[in-house]
Design a protein that fits this description.
By secondary structure, the protein is of the alpha+beta class. It contains three helices and 19 strands.
């Protein structure tokens, strides 16, 4: 008989019902089959089938399991002949050709099984022409294998300590940047930050999370108290129709912004005296003038509002 194909494995996916599976390749003996059930968590177990047919048949045969292959599981049928030779040839005139052919078939099947393993191995490129590489012995502690300057494989120990130190340094750097660039995430007074000017500059130039805006009360209210509104992507604009008094939100910690436009009459005043710091800059109260106001708040460790920072007109 001849071995006309390189196929020596077959995979089936479970449906929770099937117990019989075809073996679509030539195998010499039932013992030459390895049956592996792969569970949905990746665990592999070797199966002993209830029955196997087709040994010595060119087209293969079938096997039957004692229990169905569950959904999510896989069945791997692998031709895995034992690495032995049990046929003894004698010096006689009536040596059957089938005996020699069976020996040749077995040798080729062993070669195919070995090649399957070689294909799964880590290999060098075909064009590699350097020295042979030898994996070093385990050093007895955690280690990484890598190339040294001479291109040899070496085991590098102590990598866990190095990785942990790098991780700690990165976390410390992020925390330090957060304390400067996002001070309103901290329950501390802005004046206590190491780089107050840089922190404020960052907040006033895009330091807010995208989608967080501040919405004033309805137009015409004599007293506009600001609140954080997460439902709108953009700043709402308020039209000023009369004198306006602005009071801080004494509950929420953060930064407030307001876009507003004077109506066609203009001449109104903005009172921000209830803030820790009153309005800074020149307020243009001309008709149809447009404005952008920003203020920030900070709480102490006990959650008490300690500061309502400058309410500042950023541009008319």
């Amino acid at each position: 008989m001849t071995v006309e194909t390189e196929n020596s494995t077959q995979v089936y996916h479970g449906d929770g019902e099937s117990v019989s599976f075809a073996i679509p390749f030539y195998f010499l003996d039932k013992a030459d089959l390895k049956i592996v059930r792969r569970l949905d968590d990746g665990t592999e177990t070797t199966e002993v089938p209830q029955s196997v047919t087709g040994d010595g048949v060119a087209d293969g045969g079938s096997l039957t399991l004692s229990s169905p292959l569950a959904a999510g599981q896989e069945l791997h049928i692998i031709r895995w002949p034992a690495k032995t030779q049990l046929t003894r040839l004698v010096n006689a005139n009536n040596l059957p050709p089938e005996t020699v052919e069976r020996l040749a078939d077995r040798l080729l099947m062993l070669h195919q099984a070995n090649w399957k393993q070689i294909e799964k191995a880590v290999r060098l490129p075909e064009t590699y022409s350097g020295d042979a590489l030898t994996i070093p012995e385990p050093p007895g502690e955690e280690a990484l294998i890598g190339y040294d300057a001479a291109g040899k494989l070496v085991a590098s120990t102590g990598f866990a300590d190095t990785a942990n130190a790098a991780h700690a340094a990165a976390a410390e750097a992020v925390a330090a940047a957060s304390s400067v660039n996002n001070p309103l995430d901290k329950t501390q007074n802005l004046a206590d930050l190491p780089d107050k000017e840089a922190a404020v500059a960052n907040l006033f130039s895009g330091g807010l999370t995208s989608g967080v805006i501040l919405a004033p009360k309805k137009n015409g209210d004599s007293n506009a108290s600001f609140m954080i509104d997460h439902s709108v992507n953009g700043l709402q604009t308020l039209t000023i129709t009369q004198n306006l008094s602005i009071t801080p939100d004494l509950v929420h910690e953060g930064i407030t912004e307001l876009l507003f436009t004077n109506d066609g009459t203009g001449g109104y005043t903005i009172d921000s005296s209830t803030f820790t710091h009153s309005l800074e800059g020149d307020y243009n109260n001309a008709a149809n003038a447009r404005h952008h106001l920003v203020a920030y708040s900070v709480k102490d460790d006990a959650g008490v509002m300690v500061t309502w920072g400058y309410i500042k007109e950023l541009g008319a």
